[in-house]
Each structure stands twice: as structure tokens, then as C-alpha cells.
Write a structure and sequence with these properties.
62% of the residues lie in helices and 6% in strands. The chain has 558 residues and is mainly α. The protein has three domains: 204 residues, no CATH class; 89 residues, no CATH class; 115 residues, no CATH class. It has a six-stranded mixed beta sheet with strand order 5-4-3-6-8-7. Strands 1-2 form a two-stranded antiparallel sheet. Strand 7 and strand 8 form a beta hairpin. The N and C termini lie far apart (67 Å).
């Protein structure tokens, strides 16, 4: 199998897994609508330096990640595909960095597409690469920074300065996407690697080029943002970084110190089970010593650093999977070439486990999940879906068996990466919508009432469905009732205070709107438990329409 043919297969694999299904499942509330309404408002008002979330000032993240999404929405329209496309492209970039590093370490062009395919079929990049978040673009930029940093660490003279400058530029753009972590990950990784190599002088001298390039990159954007939003940098640096460290709160997702160490092998699936075989090919790879040490430093140092942070989210691990893909691809290729894994009992056992999973899926399809204590996952065709899942598991087992018949190592590894594709392809089509309450999956209700919600003079909601409501209606004038959550930015902007009210004030808002003019329509999206309380408020007129879906209710006055 030629390198060119392998690359064609690799790109087709990426398109099938990461592009085709982008627009097939509903947006995940609240994260995806949140990261959609901010750039959507940029596109509508034409000001890409002013960050607004449903009309409220939003200073929690810099604008670069939103610019990517705004560009996608401008090109492809207001839809789920366009919203998620930047994450998919970022995932592609991270996989290309893995390919670049593999070739750089070994000098073999055929290692590039193998590392690319391993990264493409790794669970965490695959899953989060299909979700509208800032983390995939951040991970891609950090990976670019780390790739350039590796080249800087392994070259001399002007080439070194150029690579280090490129590392700084990428880190600067990563900072403009998510913050100071953009400097922490490359910094701590480089220190550990250089100390491992006993290059003490480089620890002191090398960072200055990177820092200078990062400052030059960030400075013009920082100044433009400051000119438009004078309070942004004070809020973002002081509140979002230093205050959170000094005064951690429940919104930071506190987890035990070992959380990332437990989660990392799960995120690295399906390749976690190949780590022992990859190690067989890596342990004696003296010619890869520098590359091996750099990749390990890239993984271990940030993993330890992040484990001591006050807040922990699975997406924080995304920048660390590219070096894992490199090590897995190179280790498996060498181990297979040297004959160390030609007879693999673990692979045989894994195939039988897959067949058992297939059999279990068929039994559930026949008898029903409730008899086994499995909650309802889908609103329709549950038995058919379990049959499809069972077939996908069987195909995985058969494709894995087929891969071991390959005589040439590259063919074996390409087939191995293709083995789980049937089950991975089902992910966009099998979103478990029935598991979510209406407030977390409000799209069916909003689709039925789009016209009423979009055209109402006054639109009131709680903070939970507010992001989704703004995305569905294109409204940026929503009034938030009850706990404002992240819609309270602590900036005390007078024009925003009237749009944050208590539930006890909702009735008065309705009365005022209807008293001012009978032509003013009002829509209230609220928890079902609060609907009667609103309607029983003295003076509130009889509602013209009331429609509920689980724990979410829409009240509408024409």
C-alpha cells in the first residue's frame, strides 16, 4: 500500500467519521447553543470585537474561537453543521500535527497517515470534534505550538529561532481562544523535556523567542478588543483566572486529583487496549529517544499540572491525544514489523467480547431494554437501533480478524483503524434524546412554536433554555427570570438590569406589556412547575395558548 493511497484512505476516514454526521443530531444544551448565539450575534450586528450572549455582555472567553464559528455561520448559514464545523476542522488540524510529528521523529513518510488515522479514531477527539466548543480549536492551536516547539528543540541556528517563533505565534492564538492555559501546557512540557535531556541552559534561553512572538501576536488583537470593550481584559484575567484560583466555586467542576488520570485512558479508547503492544515497539527504540521523550513530556507534564487545578472538565485533555496517537502508531508499526505481536491473544479475546456485545444488543432488541433495567434511550425504533448496534459490533469483530491477515505492517494498521468504524459511524445517528428532559432537549417544543416565540413582543425565560431559545429564534432581547446564572456578568451594566428579573416579577411584566397595547404579544418559556404560579398572579390575563413538553412549558398571549 503506497503512502499516497494510505493518505487518501485516511482523509476519507476522517470525512466519514467527523464531517458527514455533523448536522444530524440536536444541539446539546446549554453548551452548543451558547457557543452559537455569541458568534451569530457577531454576524448579525457586524461587530466581531463585541462579545454578546443573547444581548448580554460576555467576557468569559476571548473572541478568536467565536470568530471561527462566525465565519462558518456566514458561509454555511444558521445551522448545526456550520456551528460544529470549526470543531471538526480543528480536529483535522490536530490529526495533521500528529502525522507531522510521526514523520519528523522517524523520517518515514509512511508513518504520517498511520498517526493521522489513530488520532482520527481516538474516542475523545472524535466525540468532542463533533461538538460546538472552544476546546477543539484550542487543542489544535496548542498542538501546533507543541509541534513547532519540538522542531525548535531538535534544530539549531536560524531554523531553531523560526520554529520557536512559530510555537509562540500558535500559543498566542491559543491564548486568544481560551486563555493562559495556552502558555502553561507548552511551557511545562518544554521544561520537563529539556530537564530530561539535561539541557539546562536551553530552559533559560529558549522561552524568550516564544514569548516575544506570542506577545507580538496577541498585542494588536488585545488592543482592538480593549478599544471596543474596555473592561474585557480586567474581567477575563482577574476574574476568570486569578480569582478562580484564589476562590474556587462549584461552577468550576471540582473533581478529585486523580480524575484526569482515570479519564485519560477512556478518552484514548479504542487505542488504550493497544498500549501494551505499542510499548513493545517503543521500549527499545533508541533512535527515537528524543521524539519519545518529547511526546511523553507533552502527555505527562500537562496531565499532572491539570490534575492539581481547581476545576476539571474532560475537554481539558484534548491537547494531549496527538502525542498519544504518535506513540501508538510508531510503537505498533515497529512491534508488528519485528514480529512481537503477530499472535495476539488479547485481540482474540477482544473480538469475542465484541461478539458478546453484539449478542446482548440482539437480545435487548428482541426482549426490550426495560426488562434488563435499561431506560428508554430513543423516542422511536428502539429495537431497530439495537439491531443496528449489534450488527456494528459484529462488523467490528470481523474487520479486526481481517486486519490480522495482512502481511504488510502498514496494511495491518490501516485495517485495524478501520475495524471500529461501523460502531463509530452510529454515534451521530443514535443520540439518546429520550434520556434528556425537555429543558435539555427543547428543540421539538421550540420547532412547534417557532413563529410565536420569534415574533412575540416580550419573551421571558429561565436561564436553562435561554441559550437554546435565542439560537432557535434569533432573538437577543430575551428577559431572564429567576437565577440569571452566567447571564449575570457582575459588570452592573444598567441597560441589562431590566432584563434580569425574579419569578415574582414575571406576572407584572406580562400585565405591563398587555396594558400598554393589546397588540403586544407575550411568550414565557418556564419550568412546568412555575406555569400555574404565573397564571395565578393577580391581573394576568387569560392565556391564549399553553403547551408543555415534560418539565418545560410555553405560555403565549396573542
Amino acid at each position: 500500500m503506497t503512502v499516497r493511497r494510505t493518505w487518501i484512505i485516511a482523509i476519507l476516514l476522517f470525512v466519514a467519521l467527523s464531517i458527514v454526521g455533523l448536522g444530524l443530531r440536536p444541539l446539546i444544551v446549554p453548551d452548543e447553543p451558547r457557543y452559537g448565539i455569541i458568534p451569530a450575534e457577531m454576524v448579525e450586528n457586524g461587530n466581531w470585537l463585541a462579545l454578546r450572549m443573547a444581548g448580554f455582555v460576555y467576557y468569559e472567553k476571548p473572541p478568536l474561537g467565536y470568530w471561527f464559528t462566525a465565519a462558518s455561520l456566514s458561509a454555511f448559514g444558521h445551522n448545526a453543521f456550520a456551528l460544529r464545523l470549526p470543531s471538526a476542522i480543528a480536529t483535522l488540524i490536530a490529526a495533521l500535527v500528529a502525522a507531522w510529528m510521526a514523520v519528523r521523529i522517524t523520517g518515514r513518510r509512511d508513518d504520517g497517515p498511520l498517526a493521522f488515522m489513530v488520532q482520527t479514531t481516538t474516542l475523545a477527539p472524535l466525540i468532542f470534534g463533533s461538538v460546538a466548543l472552544l476546546d477543539p480549536p484550542f487543542a489544535a492551536l496548542v498542538s501546533l505550538s507543541m509541534g513547532a516547539l519540538y522542531c525548535g528543540c531538535t534544530t539549531l541556528g536560524r531554523s531553531r529561532a523560526g520554529w520557536l517563533a512559530l510555537a509562540g505565534i500558535a500559543a498566542g492564538f491559543a491564548f486568544l481562544t481560551k486563555g493562559l492555559l495556552a502558555f502553561a501546557i507548552p511551557g511545562i512540557s518544554a521544561i520537563v523535556f529539556l530537564a530530561w535531556e539535561r539541557r539546562w541552559k536551553d530552559i533559560i534561553t529558549m522561552p524568550w523567542i516564544q514569548l516575544g512572538a506570542a506577545v507580538i501576536t496577541v498585542a494588536p488583537f488585545a488592543w482592538m478588543i480593549h478599544r471596543t470593550e474596555p473592561g474585557f481584559w480586567n474581567y477575563f484575567i482577574v476574574v476568570e483566572h486569578f480569582r478562580r484560583i484564589a476562590q474556587p466555586d462549584s461552577n468550576q467542576h471540582p473533581e478529585p486529583w486523580w480524575f484526569f488520570f482515570a479519564l485519560f485512558p477512556i478518552g484514548a479508547m479504542i487505542w488504550t487496549i493497544a498500549w501494551p503492544n505499542a510499548w513493545k515497539g517503543l521500549r527499545d527504540a533508541v533512535d527515537w529517544r528524543i521524539g519519545f521523550r518529547f511526546m511523553v513530556s507533552w502527555i505527562v507534564a500537562p496531565l499532572m499540572f491539570l490534575s492539581f487545578s481547581s476545576g476539571k472538565l474532560p475537554t481539558y485533555l484534548l491537547p494531549l491525544f496527538a502525542p498519544v496517537a504518535v506513540l501508538v502508531a510508531l510503537g505498533l508499526r515497529r512491534a508488528h514489523s519485528s514480529g512481537q505481536i503477530t499472535k495476539n491473544r488479547a485481540a482474540i479475546a477482544a473480538r469475542w467480547m465484541l461478539r458478546l456485545c453484539a449478542a446482548a444488543s440482539f437480545v435487548i432488541a428482541l426482549i426490550g431494554g426495560r426488562k434488563f433495567g435499561i431506560p428508554t434511550l430513543w423516542d422511536s425504533n428502539e429495537s431497530l437501533r439495537f439491531v443496528v448496534i449489534g450488527v456494528a459490533f459484529l462488523l467490528w469483530a470481523q474487520l479486526d480478524a481481517w486486519s490480522w491477515k495482512a502481511l504488510e505492517v502498514r496494511t495491518w494498521l490501516v485495517r485495524t483503524t478501520f475495524a471500529p468504524v461501523p460502531i463509530l459511524l452510529t454515534i451521530p445517528f443514535f443520540f439518546p434524546s429520550a434520556l434528556f428532559q425537555a429543558s435539555k432537549n427543547p428543540w421539538p417544543l421550540f420547532e412547534r412554536l417557532t413563529e410565536q416565540l420569534r415574533t412575540s413582543t416580550l419573551l421571558v425565560t429561565s436561564h436553562e433554555p435561554a441559550h437554546a431559545l435565542s439560537w432557535a429564534t434569533g432573538r437577543y432581547d430575551i428577559v431572564i427570570a429567576g437565577d440569571p446564572s452566567e447571564f449575570d456578568n457582575e459588570l452592573d451594566i444598567e441597560s441589562e438590569q431590566a432584563r434580569r428579573i425574579k419569578w415574582d416579577e414575571v406576572g407584572a411584566q406580562i400585565i405591563q406589556a398587555r396594558t400598554t397595547s393589546t397588540s403586544q404579544s407575550v411568550a414565557v418559556v418556564c419550568p412546568t412547575s412555575k406555569a400555574d404560579r404565573i397564571l395565578q398572579t393577580a391581573g394576568v390575563p387569560v392565556v391564549d395558548m399553553r403547551e408543555s413538553d415534560g418539565n418545560l412549558t410555553v405560555l403565549y398571549w396573542r
